[in-house]
Amino acid sequence: MLTGSCLCGQIRFRIDGEIGSISFCHCRSCRKAQGTAFVTNAPVARNSFTLTAGESLVAAYESSPGKLRCFCRNCGSPVYSWRREMPDVIRIRLGTLDSDPGARPVLHAWVSEKAPWFEITDELPRFEGGLPPEPRG
Ligand SMILES: [Zn+2]
Ligand SMILES: [Zn+2]
After folding, report:
1. pTM: predicted TM-score of the whole model, two decimal places
2. At residue 55, what are phi and psi to the nearest 5 degrees?
């Protein structure tokens, strides 16, 4: 089991089961949403994700049609995102985890939209866009 929380600690969640492949997304939307060079996230089955506190503080911003970025309305932490077309999967912002998922990042997505001031220095595979099974975000 993994646990996580937002910056103010009022939103807390638990993940029972495995998380999917961890990736870095450099797309413009993720850069803006995180306020940094890229987001690090992983897909999780919705039914293995439980909000254990702060459900009323979860706000959602629809950054593109059907794509909802959920964050804490008190502290602003981005916590997860999901797509209306894929309601059974959410994508956790890994910075909110309070435990080690064990797995490590496997790729960079949307390198075509990478911040010019950030240089990728690892050897992970790089993709100009998203990957078909795991769209941006
Ligand atoms: Zn918060
Ligand atoms: Zn992205």
Report:
1. 0.91
2. -55, -35
